[in-house]
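Protocol step 4 of 5: obtain the predicted structure for the target chain.
Materials: sequence only (see below). No template structures provided, no constraints applied. The aim of this step is simply to have a reference model before the mutagenesis design in step 5. Sequence pasted as it appears in the construct record:
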Amino acid sequence: MDIKMLRAKLHRLRVTEADLYYEGSITVDRELLDTAGILPYEKVQVVNVNNGSRLETYTIPGAAGERTVCLNGPAARLAAPGDEVIVIAYAELTPSEAREHHPRVVHVDEDNDVTKTRTLDVAQGTTNDNLAPEGMEDVLIADSPRT
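Step 4 output (structure tokens):
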């Protein structure tokens, strides 16, 4: 039996565009995807903080550094520029893998600039800075508040 677990999350991205007539998906700045460890064309869940809508789609990498977050196609009806969304990627793991799993969470500011990254410790139910997978060490961006 596999367990579906949080793998990565981009927390409270600000929608910059909604394009009804583009192929369905969500375009996200490539740097933000890379920071979270979410792959281009990976299936994700998108949760709109402003209106409560939820949808499943896939990511399209946007231009690095532009901080674009654009809901495309029919999903454009579920968010407007300025809305805050959470982009969530999941993994299916065996129970033993799940106990050792370390989800990645990326927090951003109102301009979609990264303010903090965290790696969660599933076994303890807490954040543990010492358990980040190699290459995914926790980072606080200079001059950002610690929360």
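Step 4 remarks: The longest helix spans residues 30-36. The chain is about 10% helix and 45% strand.
Proceed to step 5.
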